[in-house]
Amino acid sequence: MFKKLISLLLLMGVALFGYAYFTVKMTAVVPDGEPIIIEIPTGANYEEVLAILSEKGVAPNRSVFDPLAARMAWKKDPMRSGRFELVPGASMVDLIRQLRSGNRQAVKVVLTVEREPENVAAKAARFLEADSLAFVRLFQNEQFLDSIGYTKATLQTLFIPNTYELYWDASPRDFVARMMQEHARFWNEERLAKAKANGLTPATAYTLASIVHSESLARSEQPRIAGLYLNRLKQGIMLQSDPTAVFATRAFGIKRVLYEHIEFVHPYNTYTNLGLPPGPITMPEISAIEAVLNPESHDYIFMCAKGDNSGLHNFATTVAGHARNKAVYVANLKARGLR
After folding, report:
1. Range 109-113, long-range pairs (CB < 8 A, 24+ positions)
2. Reported pTM
């Protein structure tokens, strides 16, 4: 009788072990179908992570899962943060291994033509965990900016338009550190030498590129415009760039620049100040930066839109030539019924 009882208990133990093994190793807790993306915030505790999993339809048996999570050293406070892609059909063990391994999924942060650091903050916050206010606070922290060699006026020159892969839980400081790496990579020896040859630093080259970009999106004429503004800088002539007057007055979206705009006294208005503004007026396309570094050599110091809806400009070396180009502009507007 005693032997039968022992045998029965052994059979029960084997059965329970088999059930536990099947539950832990074989039973899927992640639903089949498309991969599931979860985002575990920085500082989240174990219960908060389970709630996030549950919202995505991942609800393992807690009586088995909790001790397993502790035994596999995943259960802790705070939990590992990040963005994870859960494999469909994953078991409890597979799920814990994936979340414990740190094999986080990167996100693509796309920076295009963000006007100011606040716009960069808003864009970064669309892809990363931190909200835009956290980025703005860092971007306005003068002590931090000074420690990395920037000011509020020059910070925008740090950001090069491109697509960057970062971890979702990258902090604002992590983001800036990555941008500094990319900035150093972009400003290689060749580009630095070209900027210096034109009497520019990376920051002033970027600032001039922001004006060139704002004047024309036509890459074919950006080197010519860059050459024109470099001529003016070298000759001590005010740049008199309409986009700087627009930026100074914050009159974004206007169809025509008026005297009230160009006469507005402001550090960024190149109608009222000699030389470049304190910082860029937008994030320029790389083509505009390259145009500044590789300007067309000519004697032009005047430019005027053609007015034919082409987005292009006519250029002149004299006041008389500029007057003729303005007449062409007015005639083209009249022909289009706009004046």
Report:
1. 109/163, 109/164, 109/165, 109/166, 109/175, 110/163, 111/159, 111/160, 111/161, 111/162, 111/163, 111/164, 111/283, 112/161, 112/283, 113/161, 113/213, 113/282, 113/283, 113/284, 113/285
2. 0.85
